[in-house]
Amino acid sequence: MRDFFLSRKFKIILCVLAVLVGIALYTVKESSSDPANSVISKIFAPFQKLSTSIKNGVENSLSVITNSKQNYDENIELRAKLDELYVQIIDYQKLKNENDQLRRVIGLKEDFPDFAFSPPCQIISKTANDPFGSFVIDKGTADGISVYDPVITDTGLVGIVTKASTTYSRVTTILSPEVPVGAYCIRNNTTGIVECDAELAAEGICRMKYIEKDSDLEVGDIIVTSGNSGLFPKDRIIGTVEEIYIEESGLSKTAIIKPIADIKEIQSVFVITSFNGQGESYEEE
Length: 285
Hints:
The protein is an alpha+beta fold. The chain has four helices and 13 strands. It has helices at about 1-5, 10-30, 35-110, 200, and strands spanning about 115, 120-125, 135, 150, 155-165, 170-175, 180-185, 190-195, 205-210, 220-225, 235-245, 250-260, 270-275. The strands form two sheets. A six-stranded antiparallel β-barrel has the order 2-3-6-5-4-13. It has a six-stranded antiparallel barrel with strand order 7-8-9-12-11-10. It is elongated. The chain starts with a helix and ends in a 10-residue tail after the last strand.
């Protein structure tokens, strides 16, 4: 058998087969309505499809390789434009927030012309493990802030400054038992003291104690500062009455107060640095 494959006859057969294959391929290419050509076309159709598929795949691969550098450059350019857009959005939001804060300051000054306010203060940290929600703001004595200055939002009372350094201050909130506030109801002048404890602070509420038993205080009444202590200006809103009950002694009432400022969620505040000539400022370093 090995001799046959090396023989002249086998070589002739190979040449003939090569010619026939060539003729067949040419016939497939030039096929028309001739039945013989149709038969040959059907026989060689799968090979033609495979060849076309391979050709298209090679062309697509070459196209990807050719365009990859261009696509990479375009992606880098798009990323740079997106980064620039993100920066612009952040800058816009910061500017919007600053403008909103300045509008609130202007509104406060119009409502309380005798008050002096610090610049808007951002809360930069919350005191860890403090159930009463104390926090640190980014303004201090360099901005006119002193210990015992009242801290508010544009809606209501938040607390008091208990430490003032050059560039920051610590604020203790009205949720702390260390910050009792003289208060009264603007509807009927019912007076009392707003204070808090850990259990109430966990719910974000306070209590108003020492209310006269015969008082007609009602749920929904607005409670504001009385200004009697000299630490807080008069008529700053503290919150609203949510519940009223008589003490066990039967001699007075107590009201549950929901602060108007959501103390645990606020992000910025204002410090009243002076009001109506009241209050004495202290500085602690």
